[in-house]
Amino acid sequence: MKNFSRIGKGEKKIDGLPLATGSLKFTDDFVVKDSLYLALLYSPHAHAEILDIDDTEARKSPGVVEIFHYKNVKPILHTTAGQGFPEPSPYDTVLFDKKVRFVGDKVAMVAAKTKKEAEEALKKIKVDYKILEPLFDPENAMAPDAPKIHSLDCYATIPVTYDPNKNLAAEVDIAFGDLEKGIAEADIVVDEIYHTHYASHCAIEPHSVKTFFDEMGRLVIISSTQVPFHVRRIVSRVCDFPLAKIRVIKPRVGGGFGAKQEVMLEQLAAWATITLKQPATLILSREEVFRSSRTRHPVRTHLKMGVKNSGDITFLEMDTLLNTGAYGTHALTVLSNCGAKVLPLLNKIENLHFLGRSVYTTLPVGGAYRGYGATQGYFALNQHLDILSRKVEIDFIDFVKKHHIREGETSKIFEVLGEGKEGVKQVVKSCKLDECMDWCASAIGWQEKRGKHITHGDKIRGVGAAVAMQGSGIPLIDMGAASMKINEDGSFNLDVGATDIGTGSDTILAQIAGEVLGVRSDKIIVLSSDTDRTPFDVGAYASSTTYISGGAVKKCAEKIREQIFDVAITMKKWDRKNLVLADESVKNKKTGEGVPLSDIAIFALYTQEQFQIQASASHTSPESPPPFLATFVELDVDTRTGKVDLIQAATAVDCGQAINPILVEGQVEGAVVNGLSYALVENFVFSSQGNLINGHFKDYKLFTSVDIPQIKTHIVKSYEETGPFGAKSVAEIGINTPAPAIANAIYDAVGVRLYTLPFTPDKVYTALKRLKTYDY
Amino acid sequence: MNAEFIINGKSKILSFEPDERLLITLRNHGYTEVKNGCLEGVCGACVILLNDKPVNSCQVLTASAAGETITTVQGIGTLHAPHIIQEAFVKVGAVQCGFCTPGMILVAYALLKENPDPSEEEIKLTLDGNLCRCTGYVKIIEAIQLAGKQLRHRQHKG
User: Fold this and answer.
1) DSSP-assigned states of every residue in A645-678
2) Domains by residue range for chain A, with CATH
3) For the whole prediction, is pTM greater than 0.95?
C-alpha cells in the first residue's frame, strides 16, 4: 500500500454541515418569482387510445394559464433514459401522445398560477378513451396475437435488434464454446427459473424541476438530476430549442439511485416556460413518483448449469426476460448487464449461452436502478451456486473460490457483451473476493452455523452467502472532465461535471486533487455541476464517478502541479526533479527549502511572467475494473408464520483503495439495507387492471431503523493500478447480494428454496407447507 | 389568514390558507430546511419540534398551531454555530444526500433531551418514523450515540 496524505482518510463530507444545518438548497428550495405551477393528468387505463381531449371547462378554471396535450404539443420521438449519445434506448416516447400505455402514463399538463388551481383544473379535463386490450404478462408479449404497445414509427438510434411489432424492445444473444458438449459432460444439471420484482427507488426528495428565463433570455433549468449535461442535450432536442440557450443547474440532490438519471420532467417544464415565457415549477408528489416515474425492471431468469461430480462447471445457459413496461428506457443496457456484470465472475466456463429479451407490457416503466441488471442476474446466479455446491457437497465458499475470476485473468464476456454494443477486452488486475468471503465467514460465524438448523421455539436459524462484481464506469463510453485554477491564498477552484447526488463525490474528488497538490480538502472549492460553469461529465451513473471523474481530477491536478513547479523554478531556479508538493508548499527535497503555494499564486498572478495557473483534463477508460463484494446473512425463519427475522448481515468489499473509507462504508451500508428491504418487504401490488394500488409510503413498506439487523461492513485491502490512487467503484455493488444471500440462508434454515422475490411471510409459509418434511 | 408563531425563538407573523398544512406554510415563508418528502406523514423529512415535541409538520394544520413554539433544524444549530448532534452526524458520515437529515436531527435532539443515554434499541424505535434511503440507518444511529456521549460529557463538565 502506498503512503497517502489525503487518500484513505475518512474526511468529513464537505457539504455535510451545510446539509445538517439545513442551509444548502435542493431544487424546491429555490424561490423563483412568479412561477407557474404544473400539474399532470395521468391515464387511469393500462392501454387506451385517446379519441379526444376536451379542455374547454378546464381552461375556464381559476388561475389556469395553459393546458398542454397531444393537440397542441409537437410530438418529437425521444427516450427519457438520460444516457449518452447516441442513446442505446429506443425512441418510443413523445411529450404527449394520442395513446396511453400504463396506468400513470401522462395525458395532459396544466399550467396555473398556484398548485391548487392547477390540480383543480385537472379534474375538469375531459378525456374520451377507447380502451385497448392490456398486456400484463411479459411471457406473452411476443405472442403473435399480443396487443401491440408501440407503433412502427418508434426506432432504435443504434444498430441493435428492436422490433415494436413483436413488442421487442431489445435483444441480446451471445454464445461461445459448445453447449451440447457441456451438457453431455455434466454429471448434474440444475435448471431453475427465478423472478425479481418491481421496486421504487424511494429517494426521499421527489423528482423536482424549476425552469425560467434569465436576464439574458436563456432558459435556466434547476433540476434534481443525476445527468445535467444529458438534460441539456435532451431538452434541446425535445423542445426544439437551441442548446446554447439552455443552462442546467444541479443543486443538492436528495438521493437518486438511478431514478434521477431519467429525464422526464425537465422537458415538460421547459416546454411550459418556452411556450408561455413564464417560470414553471414541477414537483412530483410521492404517489406520482410511485405511479408514473421509473422502477426496477422485473426480470425472469431461466438458468441452467451443469457440473461434474468434481465440482467443475461444464456449461451455463441463461435465458433472461426483462419486462421494460410501457417504454423501453434502459431496456437494452439493463438487459445486457444481467449478463455482462454477472457472467464474467465465473470465467472458467467454456460453454456458455446468454439470451436476453426486453419486452414491452402495459405496466410501469423500468429504468436505471442501483445494480442495473446485476441485481437481477445475481439473484439467480447466487442461488444456483448454492444449489450446485450442495449437490457436489462442496462448501459454498470453496465452490465460489474454485470458479471465480482472479487477478491476471480475463473473461470472454468482457469482450463480447458491453452496454448496447460489443464489450471491451480486459484483464482483471485486482480481485480480493477470497478475502471478502473469508472476512464475512468469520464475522458471521459461518463454520459454526452453516447447516446446523439451530432451533428455538418455532424459529429455525440459517446462514447464507452471495457474491458479486460490478464495473467502474462504461469503458470507452463514459467521459468525465475537470478544470482547476489557483487563488492568491493557495486555494483552488475545482469545477467538475461529476454530479454529487448525495454520494459524497464532491468530497472524494477534493481529496484526489488535494493528494496531488499537497493541500487539505478545505483548500479545494468544489463546484458541481452547472452546464454553464463546469466541464462536461456524463453524470452520476454506472458506478463511474470515482473511477472516471476521479481520473479526470487527478490528471487535471497533475497539470496544475507542473505549472506550480514552473513558477517555483522561475522564482528559485530549482531543479524540477527535486520538487514535490506537500503541506501547501512546493518543497525542494534536496535543500529542504519550501515556497508556500500562496507565494507561488501571487508570483504568477501579480509579479512576473504573469499567468493564471489553470488547467482542465478529461478522462475515459479502455477498461472498467470490477469491484468485488460478498454478503453473508444470518436469519431466523419462523415456521409458524413464515416470517423471516434478520439477525445480521456482514458485507466485505474490494473497491480498490478506498478514497474515503467512511463514505465507502456509507455506500455499502445504504445499498445493503436497500437490498435487504427489497428482498423482504418492498413490493408493487397491482389491481387486475394494472393499477398500482400501494403507491404511497403508507402502503409500500420499506425498511426503517427498527427493521435493520446488525450490519457489519468491511473494506478489504486492495489496489487497482488503473484507478485514481488505486480506486475502483463502490456505489452500486452492495445491492446485488442481500436478496440471494437471504434466499440461501432461508434454504439453509428450513430447506425451502424460494425462486420468486419478495420473500414475504405468506410466500415462505406456503413454501414451508408444501414441504412434507424438512428435507435437508 | 394571519397568525403569530414563535419560530426558532423569534416571534413571526405568518400568512396562510385556512386549510394549509404547517409544512407548506413554513416553506412558503422561507423555512426551506423543513423538507417535503411525501405529504403523507410517513417519511419524517418534514419533522419540526412543536412545543419541543417532534411532529410531522405535513400533518399539522397551520391554523391549529397558531401561537405555538416551532423549532426547525436551524433553531437548534446553524452553519456558524452548529449543535453537537449536527457535528456528530457529519463526523461519522450520517449525512449522505442530506434530505432526511433535518428531520432525523430534530428527532434525535428531542430524544437526547429526554434520555441522554439511550440504548441502540431506543434510538432505533425513535427513528422509526424517519425514512432514509442513503445510509441504511447504521451511521445515523452511530451519530446519535456519539452526540449523546458528547452531550453527557459536556453536562458532566458543567
Assistant:
1) EEEEEEEEEE-BS-SSHHHHHHHHHHHHHHHHHH
2) 16-24+478-619 (3.30.365.10), 32-132+207-283 (3.90.1170.50), 295-474+623-770 (3.30.365.10)
3) yes
